[in-house]
Amino acid sequence: MATLSSTSALFFSFTLLYFNLISASFTPLTHYLINCGSPQPTTVDFDHRHFTGDVSSSFLSSTGTISLTDQYPSPKSSPIYHTTRVFTRPSKYKFVIKNPGAHLVRLHFRRLKSDFDFSNAKFHVLANEFVLFNSLSMEMGQDFEIVKDYVIGVDSDVLVITFVPSDKSNFGFVNAIEVISAPNDLIADVAQYVKFDKNEQIHGLLKNGFETMYRVNVGGWKVTPFNDSLWRTWVTDDEYLKSNDGLSKVHFGGRINYQDGGASREVGPDNVYNSARVIRSSGNSIPELNMTWTFPVIGGYKYLVRMHFCDIASVARGMLYFNVYVNNNLAYENLDLTEVTNRLLASPFYADFVVDGDSSGVLTLSVGPSNMSLPRAVDAILNGVEILKINNSVGSFDGEICAHAVLKSWKRGNGNVVYPMLAAVFLLLIAFVIMHRRRAGVTDSVAWGRLPMEIPEVNLKYGNQLSSNKL
Ligand SMILES: *[C@@H]1O[C@H](CO)[C@@H](O)[C@H](O)[C@H]1NC(C)=O
Ligand SMILES: *[C@@H]1O[C@H](CO)[C@@H](O)[C@H](O)[C@H]1NC(C)=O
Ligand SMILES: *[C@@H]1O[C@H](CO)[C@@H](O)[C@H](O)[C@H]1NC(C)=O
Ligand SMILES: *[C@@H]1O[C@H](CO)[C@@H](O)[C@H](O)[C@H]1NC(C)=O
């Protein structure tokens, strides 16, 4: 393990040759923001983004869908949660992709107050060959929002997101969809694979998909999509920090020195790098202490752990050395932030580790003083953490069933010929119930955007596509 430091330091320091301060902002080539179930052409969310409605849009190709509108929406919830599209049979959104490569896919869910029994919402969601999830527990109370956040490699010119009800008595739904092309430097193809008996470089990460489990701003405030150039949310770390004893928080009011070849603003925004937690030695001895965070994870998957560092706390260069542990294994010995940032303070750096989620059900991250740590200095720092689940060998983030089998199971279980009829009967029944209740003077929280719609399958390659939504 002791030999690790010099070789991996080389690997982690990227190309240090052409460091320049950079400030160009990122504009995605492909950028779809869809407010599902909305008849309005545009809806502006709390982060000032424009979402397009999907009623009679060219993305949605399905017949068995219903759009619902919340008549009495909570003013505290973003307008993208005020409408929903419901799927009574497999339904697809097709997005034309301008440049193959990694794409951010974000799905928003919140059950509406309605006559719909959302306990019957049980469905699979696929994105091209990936199974994003198999069902979502929306039963536990209706007033919260669920955002599922992924990075998916797209190697064709179309990304198809498919909603498949678990069986014919179930339905699927979604409130909003984001599909955004990722900057090239967001996911690197290599990382260090850390286990108790090994710490080695692995390649080929880019062929995987990733689901965000945790995105944490250590020692700082919550960061909302408004302040993140990829519209991500970073939560605070208090909940995950094992103990606060002997640690302190740091905030930095100066400018973060983003450099070419280092972590970009898309990798981590200013608000993540300008706050941190640190271990500091005030006297002549170095604290015997680690800062430790624990994150619940599900076993049977690999996780990509990205740790964000930015030395905003040292008074001079070359004074901060520390060790990084992943699941109590030494992942990086004597990390010297001065060296990996081309001798610039307040310059961001990140390290990627791949770990196996084990049966313990937790992933543990620590940073602490190393043999080279100095007294009267900062002796460990962490600014941010991301933990991304990597899909399993069948391309799933949720179980052992592949996308192909999910689609086949619907056909087998429901019979190709009957399901459109069943769906029609289902829709009529609901319409009847609602009209009946209206007449009976029952106030309804559901408005019908449109009853069963026929949307012709269009070939999106030539059909009209949504123009980019720029902020
Ligand atoms: C964005 O960041 C600035 C600076 O940290 C902060 O003052 C502001 O409240 C943030 N805005 C939102 C919407 O989070
Ligand atoms: C810090 O954590 C590592 C890994 O679990 C452990 O080996 C080391 O003893 C810890 N140091 C202290 C001072 O607790
Ligand atoms: C650092 O100290 C540990 C014991 O605390 C020792 O096992 C290890 O070899 C030392 N590493 C170096 C590079 O001296
Ligand atoms: C994730 O899915 C891709 C595409 O199906 C596959 O090539 C890759 O091997 C999967 N990852 C793992 C860790 O099995």
The counted number of beta strands is: 29
Which regions have little confidence, pLDDT < 50, spanning 5+ residues? 1-20, 415-425, 431-471
The termini sit apart by 47 Å
Mean pLDDT: 84
Number of helices: 5
Ligand inventory reads:
2-acetamido-2-deoxy-beta-D-glucopyranose
Care to describe what's here?
By secondary structure, this protein is mainly β. It is built from 5 helices and 29 strands. The longest helix is centred in the last third of the chain and has 22 residues, at 418-439. The two termini are 47 Å apart. The chain binds 2-acetamido-2-deoxy-beta-D-glucopyranose (NAG) (4 copies). The site of one 2-acetamido-2-deoxy-beta-D-glucopyranose has 2 residues, from loops.
Topology:
Blueprint: H1 4-12, E1 31-35, E2 42-44, E3 50-53, E4 60-61, E5 65-70, E6 83-87, E7 91-96, E8 101-109, E9 123-127, E10 130-133, E11 146-154, E12 158-165, E13 172-174, E14 176-181, E15 191-194, E16 199-202, E17 210-217, E18 235-236, E19 247-251, H2 270-273, E20 275-280, E21 291-296, E22 302-310, E23 321-326, E24 329-336, H3 337-340, E25 348-356, E26 362-369, E27 378-382, E28 384-390, H4 403-414, H5 418-439, E29 446-450
Parallel strand pairs: 1-3, 15-25, 17-18
Antiparallel strand pairs: 1-14, 2-3, 4-7, 5-6, 5-29, 6-13, 7-12, 8-11, 8-14, 9-10, 9-12, 11-17, 15-16, 17-28, 19-20, 20-27, 21-26, 22-25, 22-28, 23-24, 23-26
